[in-house]
Amino acid sequence: MDFNIAVIPGDGIGPEIVAEAQKVLDTVGKKFGHSFSYTEVDMGGVSIDKHGVPLTDEALATAKASDAVLLGAVGGVVGKDSWYDLPPHLRPEAGLLAIRKGLGLFANLRPAYLYKELKGACPLKESVADAGFDMIIVRELTGGLYFGERKTEEVNGVMTAIDTLKYDENEIRRIAIKAFEIAMKRRKSVISVDKSNVLDSSRLWDKVVTEVAKDYPEVTLTHMLVDNCAMQLVKDPAQFDVVVTENMFGDILSDEASMVTGSIGMLSSASLAEGKFGLYEPSHGAAPDIAGQNKANPIATILSAAMMLRYSFDLDEEAKAVEDAVQKVLEDGIRTIDIMSDGMQMVGCKEMGDCICERI
Amino acid sequence: MDFNIAVIPGDGIGPEIVAEAQKVLDTVGKKFGHSFSYTEVDMGGVSIDKHGVPLTDEALATAKASDAVLLGAVGGVVGKDSWYDLPPHLRPEAGLLAIRKGLGLFANLRPAYLYKELKGACPLKESVADAGFDMIIVRELTGGLYFGERKTEEVNGVMTAIDTLKYDENEIRRIAIKAFEIAMKRRKSVISVDKSNVLDSSRLWDKVVTEVAKDYPEVTLTHMLVDNCAMQLVKDPAQFDVVVTENMFGDILSDEASMVTGSIGMLSSASLAEGKFGLYEPSHGAAPDIAGQNKANPIATILSAAMMLRYSFDLDEEAKAVEDAVQKVLEDGIRTIDIMSDGMQMVGCKEMGDCICERI
Ligand SMILES: CC(C)[C@H](C(=O)O)[C@@H](O)C(=O)O
Ligand SMILES: CC(C)[C@H](C(=O)O)[C@@H](O)C(=O)O
């Protein structure tokens, strides 16, 4: 089969890690008889430098015309990169928000998994790390405070800023369905996180998720308040299978969960639209401090490419081959610097990509 | 001196823990020559049962007329207590929001401190726990999503819910000043947490906090995004001295920080108005499952009473005497069940109160 992938290298370490993921995809293609073609698309700082905006209409159209999007990372350093002298809607991160909205990527899947081999990096104490954990956070990605109306204005001589948190039942229903569908393929537990003791949007969230749950009698639904969830992720991450939550809570909790694994360089993500289309990117950022030094860990991006094979191309076996190769590399003691520990062999970004390709 | 304290026992373990804090205050009074008089006020579930609402106007007026308020905890169990069959504005927690707004308690101070004696309870690995940490989260408490306009309505046949996140420069300035004043008495570092890459309210927050910082040249101000802060609290809590943030972010982050200490039964809080007035309560909830069993840990409430002595009554020496007595009790190996470990002596709620009184 032939697949057309829009590739967005982006800023910082983006180009390096994306190159390794493409190498892995090509190896999969050769082995399983698929062909992947790539169209490069500018986004973020690199697009500002070339076109004056973080995402052009043409770039969005190219991404839309592809079968799936592979993204490295966007962004630089506030106070250092001149991109941040621009008004907010022209900064690198605005490209990310524009592509999410423009491609209708309403479901962000963020797995947080503790690799046995990387337990030492987990910031939690051994008794917790030993138990392991394996959760997936399903974050609503095109609604809420991120895309509500906002304004800053003087009211009676006082500067006042307003953001709006808006959800309708359809937006909630489709993300809830996504979460339950994923739970059916996992341990059949959904924890829905909100702040229903304060917010109207959370009460609607609560109600709609509870309705959707009726169509999945095998799945256990639990409601959890966001402040409690922030505690439970630290106290007992093993209790979570699928977590579903709105955009801003999902931003905070998925990053917290990533850090609880201790190896954010390993964590992939998928942002899905209705149907099969999706954008795939590592959970970590552009890490400008180590860009261009062959030091970045490409595994999160490679695992994101594996998610692309599974979710957008229905290539389960191929996805599994990539995931197994990553597992094998860890077992073989090969590490980039961010996950390095005593007695392991340290390699660069490129070499890590090669080692994974060899094991496919 | 004579002080008039409004006491709100509330629900669950509230009455037990508040009784121990009063015992401690009376001991302080006797030793240092002050007299504390108490007026009991209903709030939460207990008020719903008696008066049909979680906070009556009279209760609010009594609280307002006092020199300070001591609160136990409010709330029950959703799906079990009939309070939760009521509309949101009549549920127990609505009393908490009403008293915050009614008394103008805009500054919530939540210390998160790792006691050397309770290191074993810290969920983080030893290398992190050994370094220790000692932070105070300064949460804005009367603005943002908690008190913005909200509505749920059908729009073209689709149920839609909206909450608003609003801040004006004056609200931001006064909480920022509070944070910097506190930092001046501590390690002179303020980390301001927002989501300025998305929210207008965060950008205004950022700007006003930066302005306020100019009046405190000795204090280092750092800006941190909320998602990053959720990670850093787990990764390296020792980096934080004073954290200042808006209401909802503060709710999430202060609970996360509490859990990082591993002993939420030890954590006090103060909610301050302009001037000296304040409400003092433990960081933990009403724990209905252990209510009335003499099992609760009264230390968080006792330490909250110590904060009352310091912040509302300017009785620094007296506050220190209480804090030292708590420290002594821990050194002496006395523990309630929630912080129990091998070789320690387990006591009930009442006995813990007695032991602390003996050491004042
Ligand atoms: C860069 C920022 C706007 C973005 C977000 O908040 O969604 C990032 O934190 C993420 O989680 O992808
Ligand atoms: C009970 C709830 C409304 C409250 C809040 O969110 O402020 C609580 O979580 C707190 O932090 O005091």
From TrEMBL, chains A, B:
Cofactor annotation comment: Binds 1 Mg(2+) or Mn(2+) ion per subunit.
Site, as annotated: Important for catalysis: Y146, K195
Binding-site list for Mg(2+): D227, D251, D255
Residues the record lists as binding substrate: R100, R110, R139, D227
UniProt KW keywords: Amino-acid biosynthesis, Branched-chain amino acid biosynthesis, Cytoplasm, Leucine biosynthesis, Magnesium, Manganese, Metal-binding, NAD, Oxidoreductase
EC number per UniProt: 1.1.1.85
Locations listed in the record: Cytoplasm
GO molecular function per UniProt: 3-isopropylmalate dehydrogenase activity
UniProt keyword Amino-acid biosynthesis, yes or no: yes
Main enzyme class: oxidoreductase
Organism domain of life: Bacteria
Family statement drawn from the similarity comment of this UniProt entry: Belongs to the isocitrate and isopropylmalate dehydrogenases family. LeuB type 1 subfamily.
Role of this protein: Catalyzes the oxidation of 3-carboxy-2-hydroxy-4-methylpentanoate (3-isopropylmalate) to 3-carboxy-4-methyl-2-oxopentanoate. The product decarboxylates to 4-methyl-2 oxopentanoate.
NCBIfam families assigned to the protein according to its UniProt record, in alphabetical order: leuB
The name this protein goes by in its record: 3-isopropylmalate dehydrogenase
Upper classification of the organism: Bacteria, Bacillati, Bacillota, Clostridia, Eubacteriales
